[in-house]
Each structure stands twice: as structure tokens, then as C-alpha cells.
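Researcher: Let's run the pair from yesterday's discussion. Sequence first, then C-alpha cells, for each.
Model: Starting with the first of the pair.
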Amino acid sequence: MTEAEAPGWVGRRVSRIEDGALLRGRGQFVADIVRPGMLHARFVRSPAAHGRLLGLDTEAARRAPGVRAVFTAEEFRPHLTSPELAVAMPAGAIRYVVNPRVLATEELCHVGEAIALVVADTPHQAEDAAALVRLDIETLPPVLDPEAALAPGAPQARLGCADNLLANFTVAYGEVARAFETAAHVFRDGFRLHKGGGHSVETRGVLAEHDPVDDMLTVWSSAQMPHRNKGVICAALGRAEDRVRVVAPDVGGAFGPKFVCYPEDVAVPLAALLLGRPVRWIEDRRENFVATTQERDQVWEVEVAADGEGRLLGLRGRLLHDHGADTPYGIALPQNSATNLLGPYVLPAYRLEISVTLTNKVAVTPTRGAGRPQGTFVMERMLDRIADELSLGRAEVRRRNLIPPSAMPYRTPLKTRDGAAMIYDSGDYPACMADALRLAGYEAFRTRQRAAREAGRHIGIGLSNYVEGTSRGPFETAAISIGPSGQVVLATGASAQGQGTATVLAQVCAEVLNMDPARITVRAGDTAAIAQGLGAFASRQGPVAGAAVLQAAGQVREKALLAASHLLEAAPEDLELVNGAVRIRGVPADRLSLGQVAQALQGMPGFPLPPGLSPGLSASVAWQPSSLSYANGTHVAEAMVDPETGKVTLLRYVVVHDSGRLLNPALAEGQILGGVVHGIGHALLEEMQYDTAGIPTTFGYPAYRLPSAPILPRIEIHHHETPTPLNPLGAKGVGEGGTIPAAAAIAAAIEDALRPTRIRITQLPITPRRLRALIAAA
């Protein structure tokens, strides 16, 4: 096979180009970066869930060994444009402005809120000195529960707000009242759903350094959105955009919580400016439990209406959403929950009233799935309820309600949070489910189940379907440049957090330029590399940034062929681009490297460029998706339950997933696998607990349980590929789909294993204690 006949790079299981450095210990995480004269920061944090800060004594801390400064809100105030960070997504339903504060004064609203910043020569000296800061706090009654927050006479979660109702809005369409009046069956259920934190391997970190020569402030941050962080820092510090650079170096996982710009992202750079020395802060794991955002509780009360054949007629109810103490992200999470409830089903009428409540807990922002697992859980559990009540198979009820492929693109009556129509672009939902059931041996399971019960083993099987909106805009950028060295440099506003962004974008570029992806240098997550960018969120890197790369690479290719046609005196259509060189078809010896073409496009003093060509071999594109593209799939879980102990053992897990065209199947499977593991934690293990004063009692991993290898089942991943027409790659996002349906499938499997007891699982996580209580009550 000749070079020109080599297969394309997109769609291949290319090994990650990032891994060489990481496996050899050459990664550059924030904690690995050391600057000359660097100091270390430690935050003094609120020990109270709610209280008035009456006094703050920092004298002992200032006199402690190695301490260079202790900053309070009063000392920061003259250097900030505002003591608050205006980072919330705007929404008309929000009733109160509750922005995060750089450092707290007067009122403390959750355990872990930053009050002061200690800077010292070493991390240990900073930590010891922070412990010397004395706080005089008048404790106030905390608000810890979204239902209690709205009860008459409830204490205020924030003294500046008249009540705890942050927002109230309704998602509705269709003739809901008529659907329930004419329904053959109406069933009601309540759900209490919990979601913990992201718990990435790397906690948050910020390093800031000011160069007085060019007045440049450089900030290294383990962030998902460095360009957004830069905007917040510039606004807070009153600095021009060309005087701030934000770099997201290697990031050891993010999963949503690093999407947010935090008070620490402003406080550390300001300390570096005031001290004239680099300052670094690395969050410890205890801080991570109280200062890094999480997803919180939701309480649902819903009714579903169905006809005599189990087909959905309508759904109505109420959602209470625990929002936490402030608003760094807006109210998109409950909106996602409400719209994702629809899933891949035909639902003729729907009405959900949503109340978003303030509580005295750390702020609520997305964790992998961003509210979608909760909405999916409610719909899938209600479908199981219909099936059980009507003595129908759970899979059969879903078959009767799935949107058929002939209806694609399917325009739902819902709107996304930006007001656009929610349109499912492509997919074959019945085929996905049929494949999952076949691969899981669903029909033959009952025989195995009966044999297991005779042997005293309680096994069950459950399934869940889902749809996920991916590829969120409004844009993403890519710039490709080739210099006389021949090095191809790809810069993008997308940012990496361990998911293989550099590899997949290099593959797309390599596909167009017909060269090995390993020869392409990818610069992601650096505001100095490219002026605009949005970063990592909403399963968007491959389809949105990839589309920008595809178009930019195409422009570079066309320019290289046109320039080479002048240099080689051949028509552009007679040329081909192979392995980093342009050559005449059929005459391999007549060739120019891309470096030589780039050299020619740099120009010579006094000599014109070839006609029709501009200087430089480069191109820049900001690609804007017209709307979301919707991934989908089906999960089937098999579980064994010990009724005596409530222990759940997952035996097998089957995924059939459709993310459109797969850019790199290996990377997609890694994302799906990781998402399933997150979903298992959501379903069975992860739970933040508080005492009556609002103090977390799960401060570490002995108390807060995460999924680990011994509890994971065999997870089998299979693919459908229905390309989306909404981007030139045909790809959809893949990062969160593994998480969204997992809890519903696992809950269904547990119920099925204990079918003789007729228990009903409506609360997450499904802990042994809760499961034993359900069994005892049954």
C-alpha cells in the first residue's frame, strides 16, 4: 500500500498522543509547575453553615514563621472592581442576586466559604498560620433541605433574601388536564434523588505570576474553561485582556466542577499582584468536599397518565431543586432535568413546576450529566411502574412509547435553556434497545433467574433508555499554522481534562492533511494560543472543536496546493498532499514539503507572492453549531441482591450507545466506561451527609464512598453510528452518556431481583441501609 492509499485517520483506534509524557512522569499539572520565588497560599474557611462574622483576628497568623501576608476582604476591596464574582448565567426566573464573593464578610453561607488568604514560604507554614486565624461567629439556623427551605417560617439561607425561593418556573406543553381526565390509568410517585461531587483525581489548583516588565499576569489553573476564567479575572481585577493569560495545563479530570470560575481563581492572582511574587494554591481533599461545587438533592412528585395499552398520555408534577448557597452557574441544572425527562419517548402532554431553593451548602453546578440523570431516572422509573401495574414487560412498555426512526428529525414541544427548539436530529431508538436486549440475553434471563432463585440467589435485570443533548455552542475555535520548519501547530479554544482531546483533534487534522497525527502539535487550553474559545463542557469537544479543525485544515490544504501549483508549475488538481509534502500525481520525485511551501508564503523582501495568495500557511475558524445534536442509547444492568444485608453486586452491564460517527472508538469507549462508573457511584454509593448544624459528616473517602475496581461488573460497550447532519464530521458528543441512564437501570435490576417483595425504589443512592428498610417494610 502506498502512502497515498493509506486509510484515513478519523474512525481509527489511534493511541493517545498525550500518554507518552504522562506515562513517563513528565505531565505538567498545576502542582508540578514551580516558578522562581514562588509562595504558597492557604485559605481560612468558614466552619459554620450559616452565621454572622463578627470579628476576624489575624495577628497571630501574621507573626507566624514564613508568613508573607494575610489578606482579608477589607484588604482586597480596594483592588477589586467588585467584592463579588458576576459569573452566573442569566435567567429571568432568578429572583435574587447571590453571586459568590472573593472573600466573605459579615455573613457566612456555607461550610468551606473562603474568609481569608494566608501566603507563606511553604505550604505547611501557610496551613499552620491559617489555623491561627481566630473567627468570632454568631451561628444562625442553617437551611439544609429543599422542602424545609420553602416551609412557612423557615429560616433564611441568606439574610439579604426575603425567602429561600431563588427561582420558580414551569416547563409545559400539550393538553395536560385532558390527558389525565381521559387516561385509563394514572400512577403517582415521589422521588428523592441525590448526587455528589466530581471527585477528580486532581483537585483544583491555581498558580499566578506577574511579570512587571510587560505587566503580564499569567495564571495556570486546572480549569475546564480558561477563556471564561480569563474574562472573570480581567473583570474582577480591572485588567485589559491583553495583560492576562490563563493556561489550563494537564488536568487530572474535571467532570463539571472545574467548569466554574471560583473565588480562588481571583484571590490567588490578586495576591500575586500585591506581593510581586508567584503564588500557588493547591486544594487539599478536605477543602474539595466543602469548597468545590457539587450537584445536590432533587425532590420530585409526579403523576403519569397512560392508556390501556401502556402508552404515555401525559406527565405532570413538581420538582424541588437544592441550589446551594450562591449562583456561579445559573439555574440550568433543573432545566436540564426537566427537559431530559422526555428521553426517547413520545409524551403528548407535560407540565412540571420547578422551584429552585437556596440552602446553606456549597453551590450547585454540573457534575457529569448535569441534571440529566435525574430526569431520566424519573421517566424510566415511571415506565417501570406502568409495566408492573399493567402486567406488561418493562421492555415492551418502552417499545410502545419509543420515537420511531421514521420520525427523525423529531421536533419535541420543548425548548432548550437558550430558548431554541429541542429537535432530535438522528438516531434509531428502537434498534438501539433491541440490540442491547439481544446482547444482554434479556429474553433468556428469566430462565436463569428462576434457576438462581431455586439456588437461593436473588438476581434481577433492568434497562434504561436515554437521550443526551451534546455539541453545545455557541462556537469553538481552531487555528492551524505551518512554518518553514514544517511543524504543524493546531491551537484550539477547546480544553483537555484527560479525555483525549489532543488525540482526536489531531486525527481530524491529519485526515485532511494526510499525515500522521503524532506529527501534529496541539495547543489546547491556553488563552495565548488562540484569542477566543469556550472550553470543555456539554460533550462538545469532538463534534464542535473537531468541526472547526476540519474546516481550518481544509483551508490550509487548499492554500498549500494552490501555492505549490505555482512553485511546481502544475495545476492544483494534478497535485496531492501526502505525508507532509505536496507532490505531482504519478511523479513522486517532484515534491515540496509543507515547510518549503510555508517558506515561500513568508515572502522575500521586494518580491510579490504568487497571484491569489495571502502571506503564511495558516487558517483560523470559529465553527458555530446550528443546534444541539442528540446522542442516545440503552443500558442493561444485571444485579444480585442479598436480602439479609442489602448488599448489591452488579454482575454484568451492557451498553449500546449512539454518538453518531465515531472519531476514535477507543476514546469513545473510555468515555462511556468512565461515565458508567460515575453512574454506579450515583446509584449505589455517593452521598454527602450533614449534621443538624449543617456540618458535613462525609469529609473523606472512608465516609464518602466512590466506586472502585472490586465492585465494578464486566461492562460491555457496543456502538450504533447514525451520523448527525448538523456538523461536517457527523459526530455527536460522548462524555456524559454513560452516566445518564445508569442509576435507572441499576434500580430496575435491584427491584427485579426482589420482585416477590414488590419493593419500589424511589431514592438515590440505594444504600444497604435503605434497601434493608424497604425489604423490612414490604
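Model: Moving on to the second of the pair.
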Amino acid sequence: MDTLTLPGLSGPASISIDTWGMAHIRAASPRDAFFLQGFNAARDRLWQIDLWRKRGLGLLAADFGPGYLMQDRAARLFLYRGDMAPEWAAYGEDAEDICTAFAQGINAGVDLVLDGTWPLPPEFAVLGTKPAHWAPEDVVRIRTHCLSRNAASELARMQVHRLADAETDLLRVPLSPPVPAQEWETMSDAELPPDALAVYELATAPVTFQHDRLNATLEEAHLWAAVDARKAVQRAAPSMEGSNNWAIAGSQTDSGRPIMASDPHRLHAAPSLRYMVHLSAPGMDLIGAGEPSSPGIMAGHNGTAAFSLTIFCADQEDVFVYDLAKEGRAYRTTDGTEEFTELTETFAVKGAPDQSLTLVFSRHGPVVYSNGTSAVAVRTVFTDPGTSPYMASLKSMRTTSVPAFREALKTWGAPSVNMVYADITGDICWQSAAYVPRRNGWRGLAPVAGDGRFDWQGYMTAADLPAIVNPDRGFVHTANEMNIPDGWDHAADPVGFEWFEDGRATRIADVIAQGGARDVAGSCTLQCDSFSAPALALCKMLPDTAPAPARDLLRGWDGHARVNSAAALLFEHWLSDFLRPALLDRVTDDPALRAYLTPGNIPTVARLLDGQHPGLAQRAGLDRDGLLAETLAAAWDATCARFGDNPADWRWGDLHKGYFDHALTPLGGTHDVGPLATAGSSTTVMMGHYEARDYHVRNGASVRMVVDVGAWDKSVWINAPGQSGLPGHRHYDDLAPLWAEGRYVPMLYSAAAVDAATETRIDLVPQGV
């Protein structure tokens, strides 16, 4: 047990770190609890949150040099610049106080590092930098780490329509519900280059480190302004970031208590994006997952109610195109012309003089492209108050009834989410929450003129969006599917059209309805479910002319992508390296078009092969049986060559590996975690999305959580690769093997259970006591 005198603390407190690395914070007041949450984030994740802050505020070049100047400029274009009063108010009456305490706690941890009491995390030493102090506003003004919506997809759709047609674009991303052909009459007729949104992609990209970038000169700064397919700063692959969650009423569980489950899907990294924490103070007892750079939690429970979120695929941004006037200083509108707003900002640059760069804004938002005759701006909810990612959790996480929960979500701005809820009274609900633009006469699916005809008419909020409370079937669930109810007028009130129709939601509903998740263990099994309905649908199409060994193996497969499955290995290898590429070859020989369609949306591919897109099939000159037989034969030969001639020796896990990258690996760092054999695929509840170039799983659930509502100590969680962000610490990667195997650890809540599992305890006393 360590005792530490901590300036800024108001009363005695403690941090108990349990066997699995979760910090249980006990404080004399809620203010001290949030102070210590910031302090603990500095203890465990200082380099990570320091980098996130500098990225979001556009301060990277000061630490890392000219190679980061363009990313700084891009970030500042999307930094919240509005009045802080409505910004704070959106997150709750005490949000400013909470963020102030949280920032002060981080700063207390930074001070201990700077004075040598705590060791400097190794990444700072490698890069020759130091952590900086935080202001309360830093917590909320940063928007660029939020999951963005469809600006990039709008531009890509414009390009595909110019190169092909609307049906071909469905191979890139399907639309649900279908959109009438006249929708595309609203599309701008400007000729935009494929990289017209490069600045926006740069603003939302993570920070990458390469020797050439760190050594770039001021003259080379402009070269570091593009983003590759993995969103490394050096065009972006279709996003697979999604999630699953559900709440099951006690009438459908063995215990009679509700169950809430959550497994958000995001890019994998070391350290993890998420962080588990337990905050206890008089009147408040919260436990669950959040992001280490933000106070509170976004998924977990408060001792009365459990809650979690997935992405609700509402469209929160649009691309506006301007016809320039007055030598580029203004743009034409239906009323005449309107001048751009220009701001000049100063950027500190390591090894060079401070640089002054101009930021340009239209009435819609940041201008990200101009060629002298046309310009492009992104209109996004990010520029409005109340849209700091997840910060409305500060209200919703403390609610203890369905009405209060739904009321708190009325000011949830971003990202757009499906919130599920369950409490000890037995109530459950689903509420979609977001600021969703009201578009008059168009659906927001392609770039449009910025002359005023397509301006947003305010927002829909959670008060206007669908919800379900205590349904008769006894559960609510979401998996990023199109869950707008029947009867919704998608023309008058368009919400979104780019959903994940990958079968996860149907699978979850089927398993729960059939009694497969009646206890915590059942929900854990469902979170780790490796069944793929799209995979089985494709296997059922195999013709008798396909090679017998391969055909029989896949026809006899149950559709589960288990680690030890030979059929899963063959199927995924066939799908990713042979079937989809061959189909795209038949659709087009234009490399520019092919780049937009790759790798080919799996549900659209399955529907095309099932005869549901006749125009697209005609374009491809599709001979379904021939394509399936030919590509499966090639896949069989390639699999035999790589894994041997005996399918009994094949294992999907020999190819499909979980992997957590560390940002300093390109500099020779050795802090990556993996590879780890893992189950699942891109279309399973256990999301294991991979790139065919190496089959490494870099996108899926890192945090999984199942909450037994009311019997809190029976809840479980996992956070891979581990809780700590300190390379070499035992909690840096200790949970990764358990995660890969689909295992969990206890989510301890009661004081007795926490004390029994405490590995390390830090007692904290205020200065002067």
C-alpha cells in the first residue's frame, strides 16, 4: 500500500487496482472522484491522452516538427469555436465543474511525472517530448476523434456515379431504404478531384510516426497532408466501425433480473481506445467503460441502471460545393454573393519559426478544398455546441429511470448512437440519440451546391427519433442495422441510409428470442458468436460443377468462423482473395472505379449473386455458376499450397489473427500486441474485420461487457490488450489472450469484492492533512 499527498484533492481517497487492472476510485465527493479519474488516467494512459490532446488542438508540430504542420491546420479547422455556455449546458449543469476537476487531476499526474516522482512513459523519451497541462475546455472542444459520418462517402458516391451508375455504387455501400433515382438530380455538377476531402480525412486521422515525417523540413511540410487506406498520414477503406448491444428483460432471463450487454467495435490499438474505471463517492457509484481522455463512463452501470451504446447510422454531415466569386474571396448564393470568413492562426513548429496559416470558413463550416473556381466545405454537427463525442454521458450515466434517461439524451449531439438501458425495477428501453440535420427536399447522400438551397433547417434530437420501452418480446437490441421503424417518412425526415446490413442484428435477435442468452454466460457466448448468415448464403449457391472437395467442405459447414474451423479458413480465403476480386474484375476494368468499389460490400455481393441486382449483373456479364466454380477452385489450390493438402490440418485461426498496433512501431518500437488466433469475421456478432493483405484483425470489439442488473458482482468484462498504457507493465497486454479466446474477467462492484481482489492500493491525502 502506497500513500501519496496530492495537491488539489479535497479529502482522503484511494485507488484500488484489482487483479485485472481496473482502478476502483473511492473519494469523499463526486468532485474528488472526477479529479482522481483524471489523475488515474495520467497514471495509466498519459502518453496516449497527451497525444490525443495535442492532435485534437492542433499542437503536434510543436513537438514533432514540420511533418505535422498540415495535420495541425486540419485539426484546427474542425475545433469547436463557439460559445462555451451552451456547450457546457448540453452536457449537464455540472459539466464544467466535472471537466475542471478532471483536467486538474490530469495536471496533478503530469506534475508528478515532470518532477520525477513518477517515471516518464517511454514514448516521451523516444520522441524527446514531455506531457503538457490541460485546460477544462480541452476536454470538450476537440471533435476530430468522433466517429465521422458520410462526408467521404458522399464524395466517393459522386465519383462512382460519374464513372458508372448508382447501382454499381451499391458494391461500395448499400443504401437502406432504397433511394429514388431523382435523388441524384440534387448532386452538384462540379468536377471535384478524388482528394477534395483530403484535409477533412487528415483532420480525423490518428497520429502516425515515420522517420521521414519526423525529419521533414519546413519546405516538405505540405507533403504530409494525405491519408492512406489504413488512415495513416502519408484514400480511406470503407469503415467497419460498429457495435452490438442489447438489454433483456427479467421475464426472459433465468434469474428474473435484466441483463445488459455491450461490445463497441473500433480500431484496435495498443493501448486500447477504451478504459474501464470505477468511481465511488457519496451519491455516485459508477463503473464501466469510457475513453481515458474524458470524465465519466459511456457504458456500464450506476448501481441502479445499466446502459450502453452502439452507432446509430444517422447522417450528421454534408459536403457543400461553391461557385467562387470576387477572386475566390466569396461564393455565389441564391441572394448574390457571400464572403468567406478567414482566420489567421499561429502554429509552433519544432526546429523552425512559428508559422502563420489561414483557416477559411463558409456559412456551412470549414473550407477543405479550393481550385480557384470551386471550393468545398464540410457541414458537420461538430461545429455546433453539444457535440463533443460522448460528453452527454455526463448526464445519462447518472440517471436511474427510463424517463430520466430519455430526457438526458435530448441533448446528445454526437456521435449518433443507439442507447440501451435496463434497471433494477425491470424496465428496459432503446433510444436513438443524436443531432440529426433536418434536410428539406434531399437526403444528404451526395455533394450539393452551397448556394443556400440545401441549408439545414435545424436538428432532430432524441425527442424526435424512435425509441422502444418495455417491448412485449422482452428485449431490445442493436447492431448498427437499419432500425428506423416501418412507416417513417424517409423523404420528409431523412435520418440515414448507410447502415450495416451484415446479419449481426438478425442473429442477435434470433439467439435471444430462442432463449440463448438467458444468463450472463449466454450473453458472453452471443458476444463471441462466430456465425455468419451471409457466408452460409454464399455457400448454398455453390454449383455442382465446383471442385468436389472444396464444395463438399463448404456445403457441410455450419457457418461458424471458429478458430479451429477448416471450412471458415477456406471460405474467407475464397471470399477475400478470389471471389470478390474476380467479381470486381468483371464489373469494371477501370482502376479508378475499382479503387472505390474494393473490396466489395459482402451483403451486396451476396444479393448480386442471388439475382437481386440485374443491372449490375448485366454490367458484369455475370455467369454465376462459372464465377463461383472458377474462383473456388483457385482458392482451394491456394489454400492447399499454403496450409497443406489435408483440410483436417486447416484452422481459421492460423490465418485470422488479432493484432493491436502501437504508434511507435514504424520507428522500431516493439510494443505491438499479437498476433493472436481469433474467431469471427466481418459479418459475425464477434466482429473480426480483417484486411486480405495479412488477415490481421485490427477492427472489432476490444471492450466487451455483460451486466447482471441488480447482482452487480456477477457482471463481467474484458478490455484488450490491457488496462495500462505503459509498455512493459503487466496490465499492458495481460487481457489480450483472454480476449482472443472469448473469455471475461469479473466486473467487481461491491466494496467487499473489490477489496478481496485488490492487487495494489494507493491511499491519497490532501496537501496539509
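Researcher: Give me one sentence on the second I can quote.
Model: The chain has a mean pLDDT of 96.
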